[in-house]
Amino acid sequence: MSDSLKDIPIRVVHTPPGKDPDQGSSLYEVHKKVYPRAVKGVFNNWRVLFVLGTQLVYLALPWLNWNGRQAVLFDLANRKFFLFGLTIWPQDFIYLAALLICSAFGLFAWTTVAGRLWCGYSCPQTVYTEIMLWIENWVEGDRNKRMKLDKSPMSARKLRIKSTKHALMIAFSLVTGFTFVGYFTPIRDLVAALPRLDYGPWESFWILFYAGFTYLFAGFLREQMCIYMCPYAQFQSVMFDADTLIVSYDEARGEPRGSRKKGVNPRDEGLGDCIDCTLCVQVCPTGIDIRNGLQIACIGCAACIDACDDVMDKMGYPRGLIRYTTENALKGAYPESEFVSRLKRPRVVLYTLVLLVVVGASLGSLLMRKPFKVDVLRDRASLVRETDDGWLENSYSLKIINTSEQSQRFRLSVKGLPDVKLSTDTPVVTAAAAATETVGVRVQADPQYATKGSHEIHFVIESLDDPSKVVEEKSSFIGE
């Protein structure tokens, strides 16, 4: 090669077999529809149990009553969240932050220990997709029938079957959207308004929004959500290590793979235990081949384990060619029976400790939480005025929030300046259950003590039903 050609960059273009190189190449992988095959087995039974359990809780919870109201209701209009006997007010939103922290570190700890088991059994995307697959399998038939139907030209029969399937999917999606809104608007009110479709714009929007995305994600996108759109799938690799429990194919035992007759010793044929039936691929809801190793698309559902174990039983081979194990155990670094002892890893311990601290602090705070709260608002329209007897007076509004499920009575007083006194038309305030009572009060102080400027005072609110429950709220008195 001449010197003039040495510096010219050479671009090597790889052309897939059977493709014309002049057609160019796409930056994106061509989507191929996945037709998961139905499978039976222990892990499938667990998956069905989780699908039914999560949906039973989700659909039934809004119908439960507690003290004459909906047991779980997020009343945004009145800024109150009801969780059975617990009422959460805007001042309690620190507990929401604690809940989010617990969820995050709980997910981190669980992922480090057991991989994507959450995805495989309890994730709403997995649950809804499984239900849509049940509908599809019931209406269109098994995997082969579904593939054959999709390849066939449009006909009256195909239109009827497809219309029935999508009608059932839409109906289920609407039920999920209706139930979702039932957590924010009393669900019995929603049902009462159903014959007239008498819903507000926001209720209508959220029913259709939630239902629409359920239908889109679980009915169409399915595995695309898990592979490309789910953020958890993208950052899970930073939480995995060689001791994380994952679905793995035992390559040392299974290779070389190949077909053979039943009853033949695979070692005599120079083969491993894998008969290359591809059932592990056919049952996978994301369409991957677990024999290629750990992949981002694997959601840990163990459908391939059930399929493979069934084949091993028929062939008379030991189960576990595909199984839950860890990378180190698969390499022989330790027996799989010692998996529990490997939980004492730094990241697992750290995540667990943080989780326990936040949970403990939150529960302790809830247990010590007083059954009422007080907000003090000083009347800024009239900061200070002089009374007929020469004392100085400031006006305030006390908002007493009864966070309990019973009516409460309160006695008001004030302290912080010598001889300071409280003047109000209602010395004893009654607040209904889970309600707010606003009281106007006046604080009077001797001018010789309430000099010009701001002076710290404290309002004392005592529960007459339980004298041990006392709240002090700081405020300021303006003198002149």
From TrEMBL:
The chain crosses the membrane at residues 46-64, 93-113, 167-184, 204-221, 348-368. Keywords: 4Fe-4S, Electron transport, Iron, Iron-sulfur, Membrane, Metal-binding, Transmembrane, Transmembrane helix, Transport. NCBIfam families: ccoG_rdxA_fixG. It comes from Crenobacter cavernae. Coiled coil: none annotated. It holds the Pfam family Fer4_5. The keyword Magnesium does not apply. This is Cytochrome c oxidase accessory protein CcoG. Residues 263-293 form the 4Fe-4S ferredoxin-type domain. The lineage of its organism: Bacteria, Pseudomonadati, Pseudomonadota, Betaproteobacteria, Neisseriales. It comes from the Bacteria. Signal peptide: none annotated.
